[in-house]
Amino acid sequence: MTVQLTDNRRVIYRRPDALQDKSTHYCPGCGHGIVHRLVAELFDEMKLTGRTIGVGSVGCSVFAYEYFKTDFVESPHGRAPAVATGVRRVQPDKFVFTYQGDGDLAAIGTAEIVHAAARGENITAIFVNNGIYGMTGGQMAPTTLLGQKTTSSPLGRDPVLAGYPVPITEMLALVPGTAYAARGSVATPQLVGRAKSLLKRAFELQEAKAGFTIVEILSNCPVGWGMTAPASMEHVEKDVIGTYPLGVLVDRAKAGPESK
Ligand SMILES: Cc1ncc(C[n+]2csc(CCOP(=O)(O)OP(=O)(O)O)c2C)c(N)n1
What we know:
By secondary structure, the chain is of the alpha/beta class. It has helices at 32-45, 80-90, 102-108, 110-118, 159-162, 168-173, 189-207, 222-225, 229-243, 252-255; strands spanning 52-56, 71-74, 95-101, 124-129, 132-133, 139-140, 178-185, 212-218, 247-251. The protein has a seven-stranded mixed β-sheet with strand order 2-1-3-4-8-7-9, sandwiched between helices. A two-stranded antiparallel ribbon has the order 5-6.
């Protein structure tokens, strides 16, 4: 759709071609939409849309298939890496990604993500970590910060009762089948740009059949956290990054094939 501007305003963003022209179901201020946009921009730039198959998960992003102009398969809760494994193995020329929340990837789907990484499957996991189970009402997830109040830890996460936050992306980085593991965030415009370059590297490595790739994106949940959207982004920047540092955790393709 072309927008005709009648005054001297300037268009600085357009909807990427890889996204459908559709209103979002996400809550105001939710980071899922930003991540969708970054992924779609890369589909356009890397000309991937026509040969991409997404694998959806269960959680707020369950309707991701309604936004991307790619093929999509929906999977049971946590099982996206297993479904993506099958899709990629029977369609080896396709670009295959999973799109998963932290409840999906780091709780019910722990086994699937670990073994997909261990097998070095040529898939990319896009892991959106908002620290809670957003869709079901803001319960504690494995990724919830120590002391964080959630609907199932109203006094704050206590490690004696509920253990410690799980740094699943660091754990996956240790697995030799993981070609690339990185963590970015969408908390500030600058970080959004950096998150895109992490996703791009992962996509390029899948194209090079380098093995399993994962990019964790630290995001927000203003409604589940009981915060305004700007306060929730500040919380990510000031508090969440302290527990989950940003950066490239492993890039085995750069290190050379012997390290894989
Ligand atoms: C097998 C199964 N168990 C539990 C549920 C309930 N359930 C739906 S969404 C969800 C949590 C999703 O949280 P997360 O992956 O962090 O995504 P978010 O909604 O925060 O984006 C749960 C437990 C389900 N749908 N299926």
